[in-house]
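Q: What structure does this chain adopt?
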Amino acid sequence: MSTPTKSTKLEHYVNPAPFDPQSIENMTPEQEAIFLASQKKLMWWKFKKHKVAVFCGGFLLFMYLAILISEILAPYALETRNSKFIYAPPKALHFVHDGEFVGPFVYKFKRSRDPRTLKRLYAEDTRKPYPIRFFCSGDKYKFWGFIKGDFHIVCPPEKKVSMFFFGADRLGRDVLSRMIYGSRISLTIGLLGISISFTLGIIIGGLAGYYGGWVDLVVQRIIEVVQSLPTIPLWLALAAIMPVTWSPIVVYFGITIILGLVDWTGLARAVRSKLLSLREEDYVLAARLMGASPKRIIGLHLVPGFMSHLIASATITIPTMILGETALSFLGLGLRSPIVSWGVLLNEAQNINVVALYPWLMLPVLPVILIILAFNFFGDGLRDAADPYG
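A:
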């Protein structure tokens, strides 16, 4: 029987160099940059890869910046009328006259009337070009209803020469200018509505997810009742409650509150499901043990954990608000003159005879389509970027 040999003692090596948490071995500079990047930077890098979302985000940014200077961008003032150009068709923009480059200009309209149908007829008089003016003095307005001014980026050539690129309506008002003014209402109503919807959704859904039990049971039943109601009839019923004697501004805020009160249920359920999974985390238990109130735990610890998902959800909810206002105004139960929105402009296109004779009155539907598509693509990009590790 062999005697056991004494085991050889292994030396324990300790690196005397100080520990550097930023040192990464065997990594390329690109890999090192990704490894050390913050979550916000990773989200931005992933969002930039979604080219359509980036383009739509730039388009939405341009539209929301444009509503700040609607009076300056519009060629005509909001209520400028020209009785000589009632239902004038869209006018073409020209650059070349008789083979010579002149720059942007328009031709003068020659007016006539069909002896059989008595319809107004317009034809371009191509004998003389009328150059368009830029950075000029035009129709007077009140900037945001307070500051008087008459500066415009683009102005018609002369008072007797029209520049209706999108045609004119039944009162001879420029459709393009009214669309620019209407964007201020149609775009801001979505932002105000989503602020109300998010406030209700986060508070109600947060309470249901954090407390659970009978609170969650009551909230879930309320959500199911609200979601079971048909949307458009509910909008119509709530809009019909508002007295006709209310001023347009009060009606505007009333429609905004209605859209926010109806559209909070989906977000509340998303917040509830997130909080049910996050409330058992260790950092939530630590906050409870340190005496943090439920309000502080929900607002400072739980909600920021999925804020990126809330932002992506907001970009998808805002188009619903815009469509809701457009539908109500189109049906005559939402905003009304003198407030101008895209839905109010489309209200004039309800008559099929008007649409058949003057189809340019349907042009306000184009910005609605473009904004809805832009928000959807932008929301898809944000939703993908919200999970940079996916």
